[in-house]
Automatic annotation (TrEMBL), chain A:
This protein's record includes keyword Membrane: no
Entry GO MF terms: hydroxymethylglutaryl-CoA synthase activity
Gene3D superfamilies xref list: 3.40.47.10
Species annotation: Stappia indica
Family: Belongs to the thiolase-like superfamily. HMG-CoA synthase family.
Domain Hydroxymethylglutaryl-coenzyme A synthase N-terminal: 3-177
PANTHER family (alphabetical): 3-HYDROXY-3-METHYLGLUTARYL COENZYME A SYNTHASE, HYDROXYMETHYLGLUTARYL-COA SYNTHASE
This protein's UniProt keywords: Transferase
Residue ranges of domain Hydroxymethylglutaryl-coenzyme A synthase C-terminal in the record: 278-371
Record carries keyword Transmembrane: no
Name the record gives this protein: 3-hydroxy-3-methylglutaryl-ACP synthase
GO-annotated biological processes: acetyl-CoA metabolic process
From TrEMBL, chain B:
Coiled coil: none
Cited InterPro entries: ACP-like_sf (IPR036736), PP-bd_ACP (IPR009081)
Domain named Carrier: residues: 2-79
UniProt-listed SUPFAM superfamilies: ACP-like
Pfam families: PP-binding
Superkingdom: Bacteria
PROSITE patterns named in the record: CARRIER
Protein name: Acyl carrier protein
The organism's taxonomic lineage, starting at the top: Bacteria, Pseudomonadati, Pseudomonadota, Alphaproteobacteria, Hyphomicrobiales
Length: 418, 81
């Protein structure tokens, strides 16, 4: 039997501020029936003193704090997974490693492949453990992404259209080990589908571009292609029967719904009623957190996993199907087993309560942030962060356990715990 | 099946996917986006049309047409290839 390996502990961090997406759509004059199709209610908005490092560290800290010193000493790899880099060479993992005070005999690096990065990072860690080159080692994998609409060109609001309400921010930290309490990965059970396509990209340090139709088409092709590759490797795999729950990369809920419908039609010619019922029972639970933080890119498939674990009552071991898609593009369908303990451990992180504590931005506050005057751009040298740009967002009950960006000295980012 | 017949199938799929367009005249020169069909619905319509004409090609190969007529021409060319 293959060695047990997978996610030992997991946490989702959704930042310090959020925006009501319906309010934003009304403010922008967007079509409301279309808004309903997004299946997004709130989105996390990164404050100027939040960046991919603070998101990553704040997601990981509760996991690290819960470890005994001897367990912490076995973390031998830190992988950051992001498309929101802050430097072309130095990886975020160095800052994450420092602020979590992790051992120095650690392999640090970063992975980029748009929203697929998180799965690439998880698979790297899983295969490091399966290879048994350092028996008993643990890896910390953090997928962390933010979107900065503040950095768009003037007059870009119309172009953003539906990407503005769906783009969010968040990080998922995962401790990967040979005691997979949260998700035991089915080793060797995976399928990939990849090809070159220019669907969405970040052509400059502070710019994003994309074609919604092409991205949707590539996602649909990949969902089918990756599952077919999975079923080529896994005997008797059946999309409808093999998985109790499904967790997909979620740019917005409507896209997941479209991909599920496509697969159910292609594979089974399933009628609309059956497809809808199956979506509600096997995919809707995974949207629980995504609809509160928006698209979290590299972390999104794990935000879906966390949402499922939070909302589904698991009374016996259950196999789940995961689908990750990253523009450009690469995708993977893989699986693992969750147990009642998975749900208990995830719920102990109290993720909904943390999301409830975010400051709810008014449209006026959001528009202040959109002007981008306080944002530290990629490559900025020497800066002081204004922590009072939205006074009500600064926590009054700070317990010294949350990291924020304080200054940039030379090019070195300086953070403080508040 | 010629391009005009494929365009008829696309238009029928538009009407069934977006019932609000049932009574509206739709022609080859119309673009789905201009008709108010959103991106998810557009992919649904293309998938249903592929099924109806028995064509199996990756979706990304169908990106680019600016209106229903161009999409029908592309599907026609693919079905002959």
């Amino acid at each position: 039997m293959t060695r047990a390996v997978g996610i030992e502990a997991m946490n989702v961090y959704g930042g310090m501020a959020c925006l009501d997406v319906k309010e934003l759509c009304l403010h922008r004059g967007l079509d409301m029936p279309r808004f309903e199709n997004l299946l997004v209610q709130e989105k996390t908005v990164a404050l100027p003193y939040e960046d991919p490092v603070t998101f990553a560290v704040n997601a990981a800290r509760p996991l690290i704090d819960a470890l005994a010193p001897e367990e912490r000493a076995r973390i031998e790899m830190v992988v950051t997974c992001t498309e929101s880099g802050i430097d072309f060479g130095k990886s975020l993992s160095t800052y994450v490693h420092a602020h979590l005070d992790l051992p120095s005999n650690c392999r640090l690096f970063e992975i980029k492949q748009a929203c697929y990065s998180g799965t690439a990072g998880l698979q790297m860690a899983v295969n490091f453990l399966l290879a048994q080159t350092s028996p008993g080692a643990k890896a910390l994998v953090v997928a962390t992404d933010i979107s900065r609409f503040a950095l768009a060109d003037a007059g870009a609001v119309e172009e953003w259209a539906y990407s503005e309400p769906s783009s969010g921010a968040g990080a998922v930290a995962m401790l990967v080990s040979d005691t997979p309490h949260v998700l035991r990965i089915d080793a060797g059970a995976y399928g990939n589908h990849a090809f070159e396509v220019m669907d969405t990209c970040r052509p400059g340090p502070d710019t994003e571009a994309g074609d919604a139709d092409l991205s949707l088409m590539a996602y649909l092709d990949c969902c089918e292609g990756a599952f077919r590759d999975y079923s080529r490797r896994v005997e008797n795999a059946d999309f409808r029967e093999s998985f109790g729950q499904l967790c997909f990369h979620t740019p917005f809920g409507g896209m997941v719904k479209g991909a599920h419908r496509h697969l159910m039609r292609r594979l089974y010619k399933a009628p609309p009623k059956e497809i809808e019922a199956d979506f509600q029972s096997r995919l809707a639970p995974s949207l629980a957190f995504g609809k509160r933080v928006g698209n979290t890119a590299g972390g999104s498939v794990f935000v879906a996993l966390a949402g499922m674990l939070e909302t589904v009552d698991i009374d016996a071991p259950m196999r789940i199907g995961m689908f990750s898609y990253g523009s450009g593009c690469c995708s993977e369908f893989y699986s693992g087993v969750v147990t009642p303990e998975s749900g208990e451990r995830l719920r102990a992180m109290r993720i909904p309560q943390a999301l409830d504590r975010r400051h709810r931005l008014t449209i006026a506050e959001y528009e202040t942030l959109l002007r981008g005057e306080s944002v530290v751009r990629f490559g900025t040298k020497d800066a002081e962060l204004n922590h009072q740009i939205v006074p009500d967002a600064w926590p009054v009950d700070a317990a010294g356990d949350r990291l924020v960006l304080d200054a940039v000295v030379g090019y070195h980012r300086k953070y403080i715990w508040i | 099946m010629d391009s005009d017949r494929i365009a008829e199938i696309i238009i029928a799929e538009i009407r069934s996917t977006v019932p609000e367009l049932e009574a509206q005249p739709i022609a080859r020169a119309d673009s789905m986006a201009d008709l108010g069909v959103d991106s998810i619905e557009r992919s649904e319509i293309i998938l249903a049309t592929l099924e109806a004409i028995g064509l199996k090609v990756p979706m990304v190969q169908l990106h680019g047409p600016r209106n229903i007529g161009e999409l029908a021409d592309l599907l026609h060319a693919k079905s002959k290839a």
